[in-house]
Amino acid sequence: MGQLRADEFDRFVTARWSGLLHLARLLTGADQHRAEDLLQEALVKLWFAWPKVAEQAPEAYVRRVLARAAARSARRRWWGEHPVDQLPDPPEVGDETAAVDERTRLEAMLALLPARQRAAVVLRYYQDLPERHVAEVLGCPVGTAPQPPSRSPCRHGLQPGSALAGFKGSRWVRAA
């Protein structure tokens, strides 16, 4: 029984790792290291809850844990960063594609949002969840869940019908 549980869990993690890591990265404002930490924390919690959620919705469980952990970690005062007087040399710019530039710009805009609003935007537009599921994950009434995404992107320079409207799956698609 234990080996079957481990095999099912391994298959789930293998199949969903990159998508969950990308979600965690977006929830942390494109901070790869914090995203990896959050995903690891979420997967540990999933392991212990696996017998209960394996047959139901393990991805929804991980999504909820990620969103809550990202909001909790954003409230921490210290992450161990040390300010420096001089920034390191920027990496050499290679042949950047427009898609990478757009994704970088949008990730930077997402990083400007407060953690809860960022979670609402990512869950609604990246994960393409209905408002009801976003509200459930964020633990708020249904009527308030769509408000942060509808207001905050415009406040930070994104207009309705812009690139966020084309944010689907694991890539950004520019809206027509």
Outline the fold blueprint.
Elements: H1 2-27, H2 32-53, H3 58-74, H4 98-112, H5 115-126, H6 131-138, H7 147-155, E1 167-168, E2 171-172
Antiparallel strand pairs: 1-2
**Which word captures the global form?**
globular
What's the alpha carbon Rg, rounded to whole Å? Answer: 17 Å
Tally of strands: 2
Report the biggest beta sheet as strand number plus sense, adding barrel if it closes.
Answer: 2 strands, antiparallel
Order of helices and strands: HHHHHHHEE
Strand content: under 5%
Pick out the low-confidence regions.
Answer: 148-176
Helix content: 55-70%
**Straight-line N-to-C gap:** 51 Å
The SS-based structural class is: mainly alpha
> Main sheet: which strands, in order across?
1-2
The total of helices stands at: 7
**Would you tell me the overall average pLDDT?**
77
What do these coordinates show?
- This protein is mostly helical.
- The chain is built from seven helices and two strands.
- The protein has helices at 2-27, 32-53, 58-74, 98-112, 115-126, 131-138, 147-155, and strands at residues 167-168, 171-172.
- A two-stranded antiparallel sheet has the order 1-2.
- A hairpin with a 2-residue loop joins strand 1 and strand 2 (171-172).
- Helix 1 crosses helix 3, helix 5 (115-126) packs antiparallel against helix 6 (131-138) and helix 5 (115-126) crosses helix 7 (147-155).
- The longest helix is centred in the N-terminal third of the chain and has 26 residues, at 2-27.
